[in-house]
Amino acid sequence: MSPIVATVIGDPCGVGPEVVLKSLADPALPRDGRPLLIGSLAALDRTRAACGIDIALRAVAHIDAARFEPGIVDVLDDYPLDPAEIVFSRASAACGQAVLHWLDTAERLGRAGAVQATIMAPIDSTALRLTGRLKELDDLQPAGTWLLRVGDGLRVVPIAEHVLMRDVPATVTQANVLTLLRVLASTLENFGLRKPRIAVAGLNPHAMGPEDREQIAPAVEQARADGIDAHGPVSPDAVFRQCIEGKHDAVVSMYHDQGQIAVKTAVFEGACSIYIGLPYVHLSIPHGSAYDIAGKGIAQHKSMLAAMRTAANLAAGRGFDLNGARA
Q: Rounded to whole angstroms, how far apart are CA atoms 175 and 182?
């Protein structure tokens, strides 16, 4: 059977429900999958009416009740969120609690194999903080995972995410670089890339610094000894352009913004992120809940559409194909 791709609708007071519904209604979305939404039908109905999106929805209390009938999208709505709490552009603890429940549901279904891929629509950090559940916030990115950003020929993953610049050099270790290279190579091969060519960005200008010589270079050398087609450290001012031009299949960056600036410059709309290191396919998109435009019908949905297309392709075993990149 075709894979089930379950999408958490995101913060119900932001643009998450809008970009999800727009993507599902877009003719560019392949129709051979089985989409499932996880969230509030009331929030989706409110967004559907406010934004003029013509799509049929049906609430189910359990995944086993989903019918996946053509033209109707099932919504797994099993959390008692008061519709009065769903107000466009307003953060609330109630909505934050609902989002945490929906994310937990998606993870449980993914790990159990009940769905073949999951996607997280934009969530809101303010609403999540209002819940007071700080541990869950720390666990939103599971341990042992990394975020692979993809779009327009670029595949970029940093060794660490939100680290202050002054603390970055301490994270650039041979162990960290080598661990990520091994996981990335295995993941890309599972996604259909044969012998992926992975470039490792240097930390310092022109990759000429102590971290480049003493940490990154030995990690690359060990990866090559393991049979991984790794190269580096490559000058960070050139490596991303080389990837766009097809010289590399992916780039390991040394910190969050080093790779994010390249990705968002190349494809600000239409990029998505894949969590690698999980036993199932899980994606997110690189923009926030955009409270300032929530409910206005003007949010771009290209990133969510890219995530849905990518999730369906990977879950169905059709390979890792992005804009004609080598597969």
A: 11
pLDDT at residue 137 tops 90: no
First and final CA of the chain: distance in angstroms?
24
Q: For the chain, give every domain's residue range.
A: 4-144+272-315, 153-263
Locate 148 and state its tokens: 């692979």
Element (H, E) at 200: strand 197-201
Q: At what angle do helices 217-225 and 174-190 cross, to 10 degrees?
A: 40
Which CATH code for domain 4-144+272-315? 3.40.718.10
- Alpha helices for the chain (secondary structure H): 16-25, 41-51, 93-112, 125-130, 134-138, 168-171, 174-190, 210-211, 217-225, 239-244, 256-266, 302-315
Burial of 138: CB neighbours in 10 Å, binned 0-12, 13-18, 19+:
exposed
CA distance 79 to 97: 9
Structure tokens at 1: 């059977």
Rounded CA gap, 327 and 315, in Å? 16
Average pLDDT over every residue of 280-288:
93
Task: Return all residues near 256 (Cβ < 8 A) that are at least 6 apart.
Answer: 158, 160, 161, 162, 163
Q: How many CA atoms, within 13 angstroms, populate the side-chain half-sphere of residue 302?
A: 9
Closest CA to 288 of 5, 7, 13, 6: 13
Side-chain-facing half-sphere of 87: CA atoms under 13 Å:
8
Mean per-residue pLDDT over the chain, rounded: 93
Q: Which of 11, 7, 8 is nearest to 289 (CA)?
A: 11
DSSP β-ladder status, 229-234 and 117-120: unpaired
Model pLDDT for residues 140-154, shown as the tens digit of each residue: 677 789 999 998 889
